[in-house]
Write a structure and sequence with these properties.
single chain
């Protein structure tokens, strides 16, 4: 059973060099209905869910086309994540809860060494379940957004249709 990922990724080997591949993908994107919910710059593109369908748990997909050492080949790498605002909030909460746990551990150890009442360990007792709760919330959000993740991946599949390399010897 594959290990669950907080930010799922995928990779597609492309038969064209990076600049040609991203130019062709932009040409196809400009002719599609998704041009309004996609941002592209250089060799990167961000795909979003339409505003009317967007929820707090809605994903966003970042793709990047990297040059490969094989002549004339490239690789598209995609990563799903929550919207940047939600990702920032989760990182802030993760660091805050981790800080609470570490500081509680340090305070508790100092209190224990000093022979005082060790109420500082409550930071650890709150921090560990807090991290687990945040992870559980992220997994639930990922589950709720599965259909939207598949939609975003489908958009990329349409854009790279016919551009994929038959095989990727250096995978």
């Amino acid at each position: 059973m594959p290990r669950p990922k907080i930010r799922p990724t995928f990779s597609v080997p492309l038969a064209l060099d990076a600049d040609t591949a991203i130019d062709e993908m932009r040409r196809r994107l400009d002719a599609s209905e998704w041009v309004e919910c996609t941002k592209s710059k250089g060799r990167c593109a961000d795909f979003f869910i339409e505003e009317s369908e967007r929820r707090i748990w809605s994903p966003h997909l970042t793709v990047q086309v990297d040059a490969r050492p094989d002549a004339g080949r490239s690789r598209l790498r995609g990563r799903f994540s929550p919207s940047p605002e939600v990702w920032t909030l989760f990182m802030f909460l993760y660091f805050g809860v981790a800080f609470l746990g570490v500081m509680g551990l340090m305070l508790g150890l100092v209190q224990w060494q000093s022979g005082m009442e060790t109420w500082g360990f409550w930071g650890v007792y709150l921090g560990i379940p807090g991290i687990l709760l945040l992870y559980l919330v992220s997994r639930v959000g990922q589950h709720l957004s599965t259909d939207q993740m598949e939609e975003l991946r489908g958009r990329v599949d349409v854009l790279v249709d016919g551009l994929q390399a038959d095989e990727d010897p250096a995978a």
